[in-house]
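Risk register update: the risk of archive-format incompatibility is retired. Evidence:
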Amino acid sequence: GLVTDVFTGSVVISFPAATFLAIMTRMLGEECNEINDMIRDGAGELTNIIFGQAKITLNKQGFGIKTALPSVIAGHDHTVVPMTNGPRVAIPFETDVGPFSIEICLSQ
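Archived output:
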């Protein structure tokens, strides 16, 4: 979750399996061909890295963001329900190992 003195919300990072496995292969320095418990734990670590860097940048601008531990949801045909009913924006990214997206939902 995302909590400040002004708003609450959530940040969702979504990867196709192939993109996620390619990212984990680079992070771990060994070939990752299937999503298992160790690789799934890597999703939480990757989220911490991405969100931690964003938090540093945003807090330098006065946002006062506090964080919670990430939740990892894996599998096919699941739905992630935002923590708030605020507006949502999804930002697609394309990398040399495949696409992923970050969805942000905020409310006051």
